[in-house]
Amino acid sequence: MPEITLTVQHKTGLHARPAAMFVKTANQYKSVIKVRHGEREANAKSIMGILTLGATQGAVVKVQAEGEDAEQALAGLRDLVESNFGEQP
Amino acid sequence: MRVMRGIPASRGIAIGPAFRFKETEVRIERNRVADPSTEIGRLETALKQARQELAAVLAKARTETDAGTASIFEAHAMMLEDPDFLAGIRDKINTEALSAEASVADETEKYAGKLEAMKDEYLRARAADIRDVGMRLVRILLQVAGSPTEGLDQPAIILARDLTPSATISLDKSLVLGFCTALGGPTAHVAILARELGLPAVVGIGEGILSISDACPLIVDGSEGTLVVEPDAATLAAKRSQATVLAQKGSQSRKRAGEPAITRDGHRVEVVANIGNVEGAKSALDAGAEGVGLLRTEFLFLERAHMPDEEEQYQAYRKILDIFGRLPVILRTLDIGGDKELPYLNLPKEMNPFLGLRGVRLCLAMPEIFKPQLRAALRAGVDRGLKLMLPMVATVAEVRAARRILDECRSELAAEGQPAAQEIEMGIMVEVPAAAIMVDRLASEVDFFSIGTNDLSQYTMAAERTGGSVSALADAFQPAVLRLVRDVVRAAHPRGKWVGMCGELAGEPLAIPLLLGLGLDELSMNPPAIPLAKEVLRGLTLGEARLAADAALEMESSEAVRKWLEGKYPP
């Protein structure tokens, strides 16, 4: 199963607008996508799950996808996080 | 007539009838249901209705408030689509044969509980959002009749235990004169919204307000933090004229906000701002601030997993200093400890954190935190109006130790060939009574003093100011506190050091005659308070203010001081 590691640079962390964008992006893919932060794991398509990861600025998260569009899903999420959610860093 | 006190959350005076926000009392039966598929059907219908309701609320929020409030409801809408949340509810219905409402309530609590257990303050506050969404579903499922504002048909003062974001936004603002809540602090949703709407609000008044009946005449004073129940004719007349004057003064003072504050006899007091980030810096300039009397640097350190490095701090400080050009900006070094803790420092818990390792004590104990901040500040201060200020100083030795570290940073930067600010003033906050008493000795070590009245009051009165039954004692109008302020100025001025004030008292219009009379050179306050403070100063003379201060210092209680000031300087 493909997996990528991302660092959340956004100052808000994976909350509020970044969390919403993350979930919306994940929902564009059919794959089952899991996000891990330390010992916590969440479904990337669940806003409540993402919030309860407690991923603040600087958090390192692992994202795993399984399904026909797994590679595309991971690339999409990577672009989102690495572009700092479309904001100036 | 009855006067109740709470926490002032949004300025202004409102006079009108009470309206009790109807709390929907819901009783959720936990009986097993015969047919789970019926419950699933009820759930789907309720979800549909909730989505429609939220779409309407969101549209309203977008037109009435700023983007921040609207984004709260966008998140609520996403929660209603959350696959895990919905699967959890369906699963409970199917496997435990629980009713739809009980299943919703259980799942809601599961997530809300997880968030509440988090260290991050922002995430803890999100628990309220999840409950708001859950309650919406439960209310629909139980067909709880009537909206919380049923019967609100004339402008009124809203009384509630607490107000959720949904409840606040769904209110028809043309019918709201002001808000009073039993619970909550100055950062509650309702406080933020009230300030956005420019309506007066007092929060944290206590359960007592819940027994006030509808239509009962009230006065809310969001500046004083009071709620007057059934005011007598004299109080009513006085508050009415106050409200009129406030409205007139507000528009007049905003027009002249950019002009300096010079008393009628030609004495100028510097009026500057307390800020904690870049946005605050911009609004401070707009409000007429002549600089920054207190730049809190904690914003860079809180709500995150690691300490910000020197470079990040440099960028942030420089951005703020650039906004003010050569105007003075007093950067207060990290003030952590007390009620503010940093999870990544893993400091041991203290029995009395307010009497523990906080402010400069912590910085001196942990140079790995202090040095990067000082280096970042020195670099950011090149050709800017930077000054440094140490919080929580109690002894001369602390100032000397901090200076040594500052000098070390300066020589390190010089050795590395990095540009750094050379001649910068360094001052201290006077918030520990020991410092107030030792100003004559401290004066040779520092360039200025700035009195932090919030902590100085709590330490002088030995009464915690954050909630608690003794918080009323920790009042900066206490003659004991005012006498310390006098002593600080008396010891500092002859030694050529200026004295400012950056506690809440500095922005309190009622206190300004006293502060002028006590000889403060600079007053630093939240940006919205600046225009009015300047206007008050312009109406005074230094001579009369000195007499007023002398009189107040002889009084025996904070109540007496306030009452006397209210009589002499009606707002």
Keywords:
heterodimer, A: 89 residues, alpha+beta, Histidine-containing Protein, Chain: A, 33% helix, B: 571 residues, Glucose Oxidase, domain 1, TIM Barrel, eight-stranded parallel beta barrel
Describe it for me?
The complex is a heterodimer of chains A (89) and B (571). Chain A has 89 residues and is α+β, with helices and mostly antiparallel strands. Chain A has one domain: Histidine-containing Protein, Chain: A, CATH 3.30.1340. Chain A is 33% helix and 25% strand. Chain A has three helices and four strands. Chain A has a four-stranded antiparallel beta sheet. In chain A, helix 1 (16-26) runs antiparallel to helix 3. The longest helix of chain A has 13 residues, at 70-82. The N and C termini of chain A lie far apart (31 Å). The mean pLDDT of chain A is 90. Chain B has three domains: 2-22 and 147-231, Glucose Oxidase, domain 1; 36-141, Orthogonal Bundle (Enzyme I, Chain A, domain 2); 256-568, TIM Barrel. The radius of gyration of chain B is 26 Å and the shape is globular. Chain B has 571 residues and is an alpha/beta fold. Chain B is built from 21 helices and 17 strands. In chain B, strand 9 (261-262) and strand 10 form a beta hairpin. The mean pLDDT of chain B is 89. Classes of the chains: A alpha+beta (89), B alpha/beta (571). Chains A and B meet through helix 1 and helix 2 of A and helix 2, helix 3, helix 4 and helix 5 of B.
Q: Would you summarize the structure shown here?
A:
Chain A is of the alpha+beta class and 89 residues long. Chain A has helices spanning 16-26, 47-51, 70-82; strands at 3-7, 32-37, 40-43, 60-66. Chain B has 3 domains: 2-22 and 147-231, 3-Layer(bba) Sandwich (Glucose Oxidase, domain 1); 36-141, Orthogonal Bundle (Enzyme I, Chain A, domain 2), CATH 1.10.274; 256-568, TIM Barrel.
